[in-house]
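Work Package 3 (structural annotation) set out to generate three-dimensional models for the target panel prioritized at the project kickoff. During this period the team completed the workflow that converts sequence records into C-alpha cells, so that structures can be stored uniformly alongside our sequence database. As a representative example, we reproduce one entry of 227 residues exactly as it appears in the project archive.
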Amino acid sequence: MNNMHTSPPVNNDLNRLFLGAVCDRESDDARLQTAPTENKHITDLVDESENNRVRNYMKKAMQFLILISTITATSALLASGGIDGGGNAMSPVTNEKWKVECSGCHMLYHPGLLPERSWLKMMNGLDKHFGENASLDVATRTEITNFLVANSAGKSTNRRSSRIDQSIPNNVTPLRITETRYFTSKHDEVSPTTFKRKSIGSAANCIACHKGAEKGDFSESQIRIPR
C-alpha cells in the first residue's frame, strides 16, 4: 500500500508550463492583431500632417495670387481712370459761344456733370435762369444746347460722368449739380459752413476747391479747400 501514490508532482509543473505557453501564444497573437492597427494609426497621423502642410502651402499660394491680382487690377484702374485719380478727368470739351455766354455770370460747368434732359430743360428756361433772365437769341441758344447735349453725362464714356448719370433717377431732372446724389455722396464730409466761407461762396462754386473743374478735372489729388 505504501508503494501506491498519485501522479508525480512533475506533471503539475508540465501543466503549468503548457498553460503558460498557451497564454504567451495568445498574448503574441493579440499583439500581432493590434500591430497593424497601431501602424495604420501612425500612418494616418503622418498623412494628416502632410495634408495639412500641403493645404497651408496652397492657402499661402492663393493669398499671394490674390494680392498680385489686386495690385494688377488697381494699377489698370488707375491707368484708365477707373477710380478717382488724375486719369479720371472728363474729356476736355469746348465751344466758343458756350464759353462766352456761360462764363459771364459763373464758372463753366462741364456738360458731363448733368444728363441730357437737365440741359434741355435749363436751356429752354433761360428767361428764368435761377432768378435771372439769361435769354439768348435762337441761333446761339441752339448751338449751345446741341453742344451740352452731345457731351452730357448720358452721352459721355467717362466713368465719372457715367456715375453721375446713374445716380439720377430716370423720373428726376435736376437743374443743380449740387442736387445730384453723386455730388452729395462725394461731399458728405464737407460741412455746410465750409461752403459758406467767403473764399468759396457756395457748393456750386466748384472751382474754389477744384482748380481744374472747368476742364472736367475733379481728381481728389488736386483738391485744395481754401480757408
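Residues 1-7, 74-87 have pLDDT under 50 and may be disordered.
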